[in-house]
Amino acid sequence: MARLDRLDRTLNIQLDELEQSLFLLKIQYEKYFNGVEAMEPVRYRDDTQRLVRTMLRETITNTRQRFRFQQLRARFNTIDLYLRRNLVQIERGTHPKFKFRADLKDRQRISAESRMEAARADTRAKADKSRKEDAAFRQIYDRYMEARKKCGQSTDMEYAAMQRALRAQVKNIKSRYQCDRVSFRIQVEGGKAKLKALPKAKAKPKH
Fold first, then answer.
1. Are residues 112 and 62 in the same domain?
2. What SS3 class is residue 58?
3. End-to-end Cα separation, the chain, in angstroms
4. Is residue 205 part of a domain?
5. 65 and 137: one domain?
6. Where would I find the H helices in the chain?
7. DSSP category for residue 204
8. Rounded CA separation 205/207 (Å)
9. Residues 6 or more apart from 114 whose CB is under 8 A from it?
10. Residue 99 domain-assigned (yes or no)
């Protein structure tokens, strides 16, 4: 009668640990390849390699345990080859998932830069428009004050207050007459200087 191989319980625990380590190793690296984890889980790979090397130094007499270890070692070699292939692709910048994320970040960066540049251009355009309007209002104010002075009228009128009034008048007239420009004319009636706003019709497109 054939003698049964003796089962090493300590070795059985090591084999269970190796199997669990292989399971976690694959899961952690898949998270890394899919972008769930930002850092490569090197510790899991090192721990698994250490377990394999330790068990290789042992003499496994039990046939069933030796066969199980050979299977687990073969699984580790397959996983390790898979990891190496993916890591080389990442290093070369050809890994599909990493390349997709890198391209997406580039597109997002370019889009963000475009929006920022558009916002800056819009800000510059608004500032330029505001400066031109202010210059035009200042010119109207100076001419109006000069006309009032000649007519003996009070010139005790702050520019800021008049500017606000003119802006409000322009907005109201544009809305009312659906025009794109408003001009101001100073005229003297009954010995008093008056400021009149005139709507300017939109230019008709040329055919």
1. no
2. coil
3. 110
4. no
5. no
6. 9-33, 42-56, 63-92, 96-150, 159-177
7. P
8. 6
9. none
10. no
DSSP state letter for 60: -
Do 118 and 78 reside in the same domain of the chain?
no
Q: Is residue 22 a part of any domain in this protein?
A: yes
115 with 195, same domain: the answer is yes
Which has the closest alpha carbon to 22: 4, 2, 49, 42? 49
CA distance 43 to 27: 13
Domain assignment of residue 17, yes or no:
yes
* Judgement on whether residues 121 and 182 belong to the same structural domain of the protein: yes
pLDDT tens, residue order, the chain (207 aa): 344 567 888 999 999 999 999 999 999 999 999 888 889 999 999 999 999 999 999 888 899 999 999 999 999 999 999 999 999 998 888 888 777 676 667 677 778 888 888 888 888 888 888 888 888 889 888 998 888 988 988 888 898 888 888 888 888 888 888 888 888 888 888 888 888 888 887 655 555
Are residues 78 and 113 located together in one domain of the fold? Answer: no
**Rounded to 5°, angle at Cα 182 from 184 and 158:** 50
Q: Which two tokens stand for residue 125?
A: 């355009």
Range of the domain at 34: 9-94
